[in-house]
Amino acid sequence: MQAIEFETRIDKNGHIYLPEAFQYAYGKFARLVVLLPEQAESPKKRRYPGSAKGILKVLSEDDEHLDDFKEYMS
Q: Is residue 62 in some structural domain?
């Protein structure tokens, strides 16, 4: 088994391109090890409906401010 090492990009379709110097490998079986750079920040938690429950507080409940938008809502 021969090992080769090179840097390349993975396109948005998931295709990995071999440099032309390795054309002899086209169509052959290969074992691939992908080393991705570490992320600078931790992955964000996925939001879901209701996930902000208890975080926001309503200081006052009134409908007076909605009167300004009546012409848009009718």
A: no
Q: Which two tokens stand for residue 17?
A: 């391109």
Could you read off the pLDDT of 49-62 as tens digits, one per residue? 888 888 877 777 77
Could you give the CA distance from residue 72 to residue 68 in angstroms, rounded to a whole number?
Answer: 9
Give the number of domains in the chain: 1
The C-alpha atoms of residue 40 and residue 32 are separated, in whole angstroms, by 24
pTM of the complete model: 0.40
Q: What is the pLDDT of residues 4-21, one digit of tens each?
A: 888 888 899 988 888 888
Domain span at residue 8 reads 1-36
Distances (CA, A) of 71 to 6, 35, 61, 62, 67: 63, 58, 21, 18, 8
